[in-house]
Amino acid sequence: MGKHYSGYVNIIGKPNVGKSTLMNAFLGEKMAIITHKPQTTRHRILGIVNEEDYQIVFSDTPGLIEDPHYKMQNAMNKAAFSIFEDADVVLFVVEPHMTYEGDEKVLQKLKTTKVPKFLLINKVDTSEPEKIKNLIEEWKEAIDFDEVHVISALSKLGTDNIIECIKKRLPEGPVYFPKDQLSDKSERFFITEIIREKILLFYKQEIPYSVEVLIESFKETRKNGAPFSYIRANIIAMRQSQKHILIGKNGSSIKRLGIEARKDIEKFLDQRVHLELYVKIKEKWRDDDQSLKRFGYLQ
Fold it and tell me: What fold, for 187-294?
């Protein structure tokens, strides 16, 4: 047996900077939901890249919330800061049109961390080369990054090169996860994320940020000789008015949500699915410890 290299590569940055898109590009799989809305990622998600002689464990974390209002947001910030505790490499993602004021804690952590840190300037296809050049100089003056990469995660421009550079920085280490494993999260988790992604896409204002999804039952069987799953999921809302919006007139909105979510769940599971969605009310769940534990925000 030859040497084996492994490590945790943790991705950090503001909400909506492209962290989830980047991890999906690294893995070649849709592991984390992506929308144009901020605070899409709520949990720390591990995505695993395997080869015979190395294992890279990428960590996609929630974007740091500057002024958290709920226990849920405090838990999300805790998950985001946890990346400094076990990182072998840190990827700090910024984009040309984003200011970085009010984040002194994060910047101080980056300055003092002893592990290799890469600056990734994402969405370069949306800015002029001169602005990118100036941005690189500004960040170099602020923090002593080990490497700087200019990328577009959406089009996978420059992402392969980052993988090669990470491999050179990995310490010799064990196999943390089975080589055929893509993530630390379960199928149930990704099914709730698919449903929540559709809620983010189809509903406006406060609705996407006020709801959570919980799988009530997941039964795998066979139908006409092929694998088939029956899934029942609850959408947890905070108020009756939100329930009415989620369901829509004559059930039209939740029907559309169910159809589109089922399509993606079938692709994810590679089998036919019967999906049932129900809306339940749980007032102030974002500040309720028991609910937050049930949804995976608290241990």
Answer: GMP Synthetase; Chain A, domain 3 (3.30.300)
